[in-house]
Amino acid sequence: MGKRVTIKDVARETGVSRQTVSRVINAQPGVAEDTRARVAAAIKQLGYQPNPAARSLTQHRTNTIGLIIPYSPDYLFSDPHLMEFMCGVDELAIQRNHNLLLSTAQKKNPAGKLSAQKESFSAFERLALSGYADGVVVVETLASRAGTVLLRERGISWVTLGYGTENESSQVVHADDRGGARQATMHLLSLGHTRIGVISGRKQSLMAVEERLTGYRQALSDLNLTMDAELLVAGDWSPESGTQAAAHLMQLDVPPTAIFAFNDRMACGALQYLQANGWRVPQDISLVGFDDIPIAQMLHPQLTTVKQPALEMGRQAARLLFDLIENNTLLSTPVILPTELIVRGSTGKCRGS
Amino acid sequence: MGKRVTIKDVARETGVSRQTVSRVINAQPGVAEDTRARVAAAIKQLGYQPNPAARSLTQHRTNTIGLIIPYSPDYLFSDPHLMEFMCGVDELAIQRNHNLLLSTAQKKNPAGKLSAQKESFSAFERLALSGYADGVVVVETLASRAGTVLLRERGISWVTLGYGTENESSQVVHADDRGGARQATMHLLSLGHTRIGVISGRKQSLMAVEERLTGYRQALSDLNLTMDAELLVAGDWSPESGTQAAAHLMQLDVPPTAIFAFNDRMACGALQYLQANGWRVPQDISLVGFDDIPIAQMLHPQLTTVKQPALEMGRQAARLLFDLIENNTLLSTPVILPTELIVRGSTGKCRGS
DNA sequence: TACTGTTATGTGAACGTTCACGTAGCATGT
DNA sequence: ACATGCTACGTGAACGTTCACATAACAGTA
User: Which of A82, A96, A298, B101 is the most buried (most CB within 10 A)?
Assistant: First the structure.
């Protein structure tokens, strides 16, 4: 392999100084047009490509942003939006001529003794300690708090995809979980359902759960209804937990006529239980999910659900990050993107009671 | 913000030279134990973190590997393994203390005039021209050939996740598509099916299609059967195309008693068509998919399918890449990972004819 | 004693850029 | 004539490491 082509080679070839070449590369003023053209030609001819490390060294920035996805492989499919987040963030990185550094959670070691907390944290640690990123987009998980503390210590700017912790002034982008849940509930109410079972996530897990519950309650209280505590069951986002929750709900003395699951995967599980036990959907019972993952359209019946604009969320988060890095603009209010109720075949008029 | 802590600060604090500190950082010999301890303490106390850019500059490597996923967002869900690939690659990157740089395809601009080829290519271009990666793992797509040419020009090592082009000596990792297809077909044959419809991908798209077809034919010829050309229909991997293909197959004069779709998404579409038109699965017709995406388990009946070890494929690809970068070991034979037939509820004994 | 080798440490240069200047050359205005 | 300003460059230093040496101290050997 020959030596790498440097700025000096281009300068020598063209008969100008390094600085002039540098000016051409960075499209700075103060270079005569013909000189600029000659330099550009030489760059092309020699196949010169600036060394990013050398640039970073003088400029004190790497033109790289990080994306922390603190999920381990086994948990990957729990959130079908991750790829969309990624693409949204990457799209903006492309626009701004930045690279995208990715950090996922370290896989649980076979012994299995690495806690979910530690696991998540490793994703932060690696990126923060590498010193490579000018800023970071963090996908929020149960355990991202410790991670953001580390980022603050290191003086690295970040934007959270999710709800941050309350006392973080940091910027956050999330979907309108409350509004989505409210819309879904209103849809069911308008079909005549009043006993609506809820399969939520465990409370302590994510702020989004709280928000969706609030939306649910709001819709009820609009009609002067209140929530029946026995209709609330917590799952762990997995299809299996949806199946269990549905079983529990349908075995109540007065079972619900509709079920609202807080993600599509649990809705899938619920659907399986219902169909396996002779309940017809939507004739006997209506079912609504949340997320609009691809599966939703392929179920039988197709699932009515609340869609989140994941791609756009990724874009917005990156946009905020760049504002923060480049203009030091700090936005104090969260960016909330609209959710959308997609009505499909799993919901219908209430006939019961 | 205070100045960044440099190696000089540590040296001054400890009363030794930069070089000694450097030796401690890199765990090189030739430092007295007590000195080493003192330096280590100072590093910790000052919170010193080596500047990666400066390191790269002298060492001529960045400790960063790239992952090129030349899919645009709208095509994302077509391959549910992408996240697993990512995690597998990242897992090894972590192990080897490398960063992972990600490059996805640029989104089609609204005008829509950016061809799929160009779109894919952009993912390569960005990473290759950035000069940041010591090597790259490429997820193969229709249009990755142009991309790998660019990589070669730039002298960047890469490993392909998929089948490479034939004249590439480059290293490849892929699943045993042929064996998987063969196993699936044998499974159907053993259930008594002899007219087995195939929903494949378009021929020119991926080598994997050819391989799966070969596996299918091999299984048939083991029983001295040959393939009936009218039973082969090409889809485009989408559920909709699966629906159409199933419609075509079932409207033949002698419809098949089993269908083998070359991915689960098309199998889903086929299932929808079958169920909507009164065919019972598996009583009237058996259905097999490929990939084992999460949906497969949630369908009704659950889908029999061929599973690919995506996570392991990602790991292997990264492993090969590191061998290439660090030891310059070039493996000339492809790494082929086993696929596994997962028998679920969508296949049963042939009753027909 | 002098030679040799080993261990622990230090020093200048180099990596490839950009930054902060400096310096011509020329036009303009008074 | 001179000062002033602008344009088009060039130069040394700096960024924070590591590399390739050099050096000093000390032990062992002949």
Answer: B101
> Which one of A87, A104, A155 has the shortest CB-CB distance to B87?
A104
**Neighbouring residues of A145: CB distance < 8 A, sequence distance ≥ 6:** A165
Question: Which pairing describes strands B232-235 and A304-307: parallel, antiparallel, or unpaired?
Answer: unpaired
Structure tokens at A96: 């701004």
Cα(A140)–Cα(A155) distance, rounded to whole angstroms?
19
Return residues 109-128 of A near B (CB < 8 Å): 122, 126-127
Chain A residues with beta carbon closer than 8 angstroms to that of B300: 271-272, 275, 299-300
Nearest residue, CB atoms, B298 vs list A103, A127, A295? A295
User: What 8-state DSSP symbol labels residue B6?
Assistant: -
Residues 58-77 of A with CB under 8 A from B: 62, 64, 67, 72-73, 76-77
Task: Identify which has the larger pLDDT, B333 or A51.
Answer: A51
- Is residue B94's beta carbon less than 7 angstroms from any atom in nucleic acid strand C? no
pLDDT digits (tens, 9 = 90+) for B175-219: 999 999 999 999 999 999 999 999 998 866 678 899 999 999 999
For residue B90, give the nearest of A53, A91, A104 by CB distance. A104
pTM of the predicted protein model: 0.91
Within 7 Å: CB of B17 and strand D?
Answer: no
Q: Which nucleotide is nearest to B22 (CA to C1')?
A: D18
Give Cα A332 distance to the centre of its chain: 20
Residue B123 burial by Cβ neighbours in a 10 Å radius (0-12, 13-18, 19+): buried
Strand partners, B135: B65, B157
Strand runs (DSSP E) across B14-77, as ranges? Answer: 64-69
In what order do the strands lie in the sheet containing B64-69? Answer: A335-337, A171-175, A157-161, A135-139, A64-69, A99-104, B99-104, B64-69, B135-139, B157-161, B171-175, B335-337
How do residues B59-84 score in pLDDT, each as one tens digit? 999 999 999 998 877 777 667 788 88
Counting one residue from chain A and one from chain B, the pairs whose CB atoms sit within 8 A come to 150
